Amino acid sequence: MEKTTIFRDTKKHYEILDALRGIAAILVVVFHLFEIFSGGDHAKQIINHGYLAVDFFFALSGFVIGYAYDDRWQKMGLKDFFKRRLIRLHPMIIMGMLIGAVAYYYSYSPILFPQIKDTPLWKLIFVTLIGCTLVPLTKSFEIRGWGEMHPLNGPAWSLYYEYIANIFYALILRKLPTKILIILGVIAAVFTVNLAVFGANGDVIGGWSLNIAQTKVGFARLSYPFIAGLVVSRIYKPIYIKNAFLWCTVLILFFLSVPRIGTENWQNGIYESLVIIVVFPLIVYLGASGEIKGKIAQKISQFLGDISYPIYIIHYPFIYIFSSYVVDNKLSMVQAIPAGLLVIFISIVVAYLSLKLYDIPVRKWLTKKFI
Asked: Which end of the chain is more exposed for a tag (fewer CB within 10 A), N or C?
């Protein structure tokens, strides 16, 4: 049995990386707001590559987990690691599912979500309870009609894969030498290219459904970024890069907002492959190599870091309602601007209140009781 030891976090906190996560998370909200106006055509989507934020999150996760835990396994057992990760991630997963359940019937649309009207309360309660465990749901319990493994809160699919990454890290990846991790990263990069360049759609979109095809997409999206982030955490040498936060912010905003590339699918696939394989690890490295100076900048970055995870995991129920409102009322993009701004405002407020009034107190209590 592995020894479990209580220890305090004394390592450097990478404020820039937290803030970048917040910027990317807010960009995801904006991306999802525009999505209903694309008509299913990815080429028409504004903030076109906003979905790549998920791949960036996986890269950040690999770096942060490697940095935080790689050198602690002499004092920490598997049980302690898994408890810490559950305490960090799961309270907000439950909050996101509960918000999704409350918003479910309000997102009814005879055009977009017609089957909501016929969903019995017992089924909604069952889906909510299962969703709170993050266990993916089969097609028979997909009560919304979009094929999501978590129909109350679609983006929870990425947390499902985040948990898988944590399990693989604890059981296998942490034990491997860096050279082997690099080899695995190269292999994973091949799968990324295969999906993006040689796949049917010329992109890496997908991963949110529980079927063989979507599961392959999910693992392809998870594997390289997470391993790359882990490798960067091991080979990273502390340096100082001036204005790192500014440069990283510009890079994130630029690469996630670039319109779909080319007229052939493989052209866009090459772009996404380069962003995932080269640009995201570089941004993580640059972000870890800078400092945020000035009280105002530090407050802004702290706020962005604070709401980064909460806003990502709670915003989508409001997107469902917004999408139904736009479709049912046949609104143009311009006409929907006030409602879209309201969704952004509500998402930020709910995320912040959830963090302060629920997530932090619950995590403190759980840490005190179980760690």
From this structure: N
